[in-house]
């Protein structure tokens, strides 16, 4: 069973609210899940403490047992310091090439220093 840590959408039309869940990758986005790990309310300001609430202990448990994280969850976990360096950049276009070149240049400078 491939477990993913991802967002499940809830809330009303034009008023999104997301649950952070651990779910089998074959389950639908908003369907069945194994465990609820927190929630995310994008309507709150960035600095509000209730915008993203996560159960860090359980998230670390699932990651330790091989769970994969979605792109958005990787950003949240990177920002929270739970999974440093996990932020991924999607895409294969020109912008993705620029990001990859910038990252390679920064790594080369860090290695030279």
Characteristics:
alpha+beta, S16 Ribosomal Protein, Chain: A, globular, 113 residues
Secondary structural class: alpha+beta
Largest sheet: 5 strands, mixed
Instruction: Name the strands of the widest sheet in spatial order.
Output: 4-3-2-1-5
Quickly count the domains.
1
Q: Over the alpha carbons, how many angstroms does the gyration radius reach?
A: 16 Å
Helix and strand run: EEEEHEHH
Report the span from N to C terminus.
44 Å
User: Could you name the ranges where pLDDT drops below 50 across 5 or more consecutive residues?
Assistant: none
% residues in beta strands: 25-35%
CATH topology: S16 Ribosomal Protein, Chain: A
Q: What coarse outline follows from CA principal-axis ratios?
A: globular
Report the count of strand segments.
5
Describe this structure in words.
The protein is an alpha+beta fold. The protein has helices spanning 56-64, 71-80, 94-112, and strands at 3-12, 15-24, 35-40, 52-54, 68-69. It has a five-stranded mixed β-sheet with strand order 4-3-2-1-5. Strand 1 (3-12) and strand 2 (15-24) form a beta hairpin. The longest helix is centred in the C-terminal third of the chain and has 19 residues, at 94-112. The mean pLDDT is 90.
């Amino acid at each position: 069973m491939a477990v993913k840590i991802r967002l499940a959408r809830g809330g009303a039309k034009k008023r999104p609210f997301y649950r952070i869940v651990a779910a089998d990758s074959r389950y639908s986005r908003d369907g069945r899940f194994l465990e609820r790990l927190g929630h995310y309310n994008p309507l709150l300001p960035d600095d509000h403490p209730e915008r993203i609430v996560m159960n860090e202990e359980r998230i670390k448990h699932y990651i330790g047992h091989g769970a994969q994280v979605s792109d958005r969850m990787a950003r949240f976990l990177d920002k929270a310091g739970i999974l440093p360096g996990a932020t991924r950049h999607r895409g294969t276009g020109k912008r993705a090439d620029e990001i990859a070149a910038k990252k390679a240049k920064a790594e080369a400078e860090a290695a030279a220093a």
